[in-house]
Amino acid sequence: MIAGTPFTLGSPETCLGVGLLAVLLADMVLARTHQQLTAWLAVLTAAVAMAIAWHTPVAGLPFGTPARTAAIAIIGLVLLANTRVGEQDHGAWSTNVLAIGLGASLTASAADFVTLWLGLELMSLPGYVLAGWRARDRRAAEAGMKYVLFGGVASALTLFGISHLYGLTGQLDFGLAAPAGPLSPTLVAALCLSTIGLGYKLTVVPFHFYAPDVYQGAPAIAVAAVSIAPKIAAMAAVVRLLTNLPFAGADLALAGLAIVSLGIACFTALVQHDARRILAFSGIGHAGALLLAAACLPGQALGATLHYLLAYGAANLGAFVCLWLLEPKNGSGALADLAGAWTRRPGITALLSLFLLSLAGLPPLAGFLAKWNVLAMALQRDAGVADRPWVTWGAVALLLSTPIAAWAYLQILRAAVLALPPPETTRESRRPDAGAMAVLAICAAATLGLGLWFDAASTLDAMAR
Amino acid sequence: MIAAALFLACCGLAIAGALGAALVRNLFHAALLLGLSLCGVAGLYLFLHAYYLACVQIVVYVGGILVLILFATLFSADVMGRLQRTPRWLLALGTVGAAVAGSTAWQLGSQVLAARPAPAAVRETPPGHDVGAIGDLLLGDWLLPFLAAGFLLTVALVGAVATVRRHQRTREVAHG
Amino acid sequence: MAEFGPDSLPAYLLVAGVLFAAGVLAIGTRRSAISVLIGIELMLNAAALQFVAYDRFATTPGPQGQAAAAFVIVVAAAEAAVALALLFAVYKTTRDVDLESTRELRS
After folding, report:
1. Cβ C68–A129 below 8 Å, yes or no?
2. For each of chain B's 176 residues, which pLDDT tens digit applies?
3. List of chain B residues whose C-beta atoms are within 8 Å of the C-beta of residue A89
4. Domain range spanning residue B161?
5. Does domain C9-94 have CATH number 1.10.510.10?
6. Is residue B176 assigned to a domain?
7. What total number of domains does chain B contain?
8. Are A153 and C40 inside 8 Å of each other by CB?
9. ipTM of predicted assembly, 2 dp
10. Distance between CA A359 and CA A361 in Å, rounded?
């Protein structure tokens, strides 16, 4: 009766795993002068894995194929943005980022709870390390410690839920675990506990509290690595759980979480004085919107969810890479330290504006169309769609929170574009190289392209169905 | 008779160790009490005929992870817990919570047994046979999670070493 | 009501429940990072014990629970190693791992 998640040699996981070991070996074997090769080897691994993921459907979950591809692509772009090996231990950096990709790939393709839990752990552990990456930095170390402690608690709670689930159903596979008839309250409680890990990765509200601290303390490029790909993968797992274990009230629970996330995120973002903290609350709000899209399942929600993930991923990755290039080298993301970015690096500041406006949901950009799709989905009144008052309220929350959240993004823009730097300071920031510029170009193209691809939801839905 | 007494002893060890680890103010003692609790759980694994897991529990958990935690207590400026002040009401609440959790779990266990279609037959596993079954599963249907666990360990150790090295080598770097 | 003994599932679940509650207690009431670590280990142990107990008393017994418990131990080891490294990093910068005193990150 055990099925587990099948292992095939031609899967992106194999490619990522072999590439990870190769990077590790190359880091040890190659001389210091040839270390650049390890960085490119890591990028190549991610590219090949992405190609494999595109051509290898995830068994039993069509949505998983594009989601897994997107997660690996994001990981590849993060690696491409940071190929300069001048800093120490670049091999370990690449290994950890690739491991996040491996974990994301596993999470997106997991068909049983043990694989799901291990996938989540494989995304988390390298993330903890990356969060504390900056040496001799008090805030980075604190971010890493908080991340590992809270993450450990979330993972232990998840596992506790999974063990009860195993006891109550006698199964660990998603599909087989679904009993006939209504679920008992104990089973629902166990199921809720076992999804905490997913909520933690998605930064949905009761499990979001770590995100602002971690985003603020960790290096911006590390935040890009730990925040986007895991969210895409976790969303794929959520979709898989919803399709395999459909229980009444799922849309209510999801819409409720979405409303709370959207509400808390948009108001808390207003009082922040750090660009990355604002982006953390932005991520919490976007997670709420994603859950709202998932609450509309079935229907065309798969396409809308996928489009939202892509739009959010491109804009967020771009924003973090821009911040990484604009920030002073001590890694402070404070709004005051962004002052004068426009005069120092006008091009990158303009791109940052583009990404932030997309996250805010301004019309020609991807963020607008993504929000529009979710709203259209939630407010749909067809004969075939049952009445879902909670989803409607979720749509209202999304609509109301958008302008408030937009104000928070404008704070970052005001600091970067309008504010003048104190005259005596000469801030040294990172010098953008070709890799980082290529990443920014790809993200900008995606942000514009996804915004003008009007039938994206239905096209992607056909792919993910 | 002796088995029942030993079982009670293991349960007591696990519970007392766990509550002690949670309540004792001295961090070093708390870590040692955790070890006691882990040993109690290892004993319970023996009663559950999971002989292999009992060995792993002692060797890896008590021998490895516990030592790591004992080592970590050195990082605390307040190992002896002189500055720790846990409010009494919180302790009372916690103890009541533990009692409630225990009784809920007992109820749940009875429920699960009652809901089972056949009376849950107790499986007799001779020592040594559990390893083979686990091995078959890990190299068969669960090959993917097994490989993932291997990568998890590799990456965790690479990450841990890189973190420690980066924070230790800072002086060298400052010189060049 | 089942009786408390080595052949009763509720007994094992009771122990696991208390271990879990003790873990929550250690995390909730103490302010040192190390007690949080201890709490996590207690909770993981509770989960592992439940896996094995449920496995033994299952209608179709299989080694799934025991294999899952083995994974738990592996992950606990990996997590402890990473946590120790990050605690070391904090110790290097602040000379303590007290959760109250490490509060640089705020809005």
Report:
1. no
2. 888 899 999 999 999 999 989 888 888 899 999 999 999 999 999 999 889 999 999 999 988 899 999 888 888 776 656 556 667 777 788 788 888 888 888 888 777 777 665 545 566 666 666 788 888 889 988 999 999 999 999 999 999 999 888 877 655 444 33
3. 162, 165-166
4. 140-176
5. no
6. yes
7. 1
8. yes
9. 0.94
10. 5
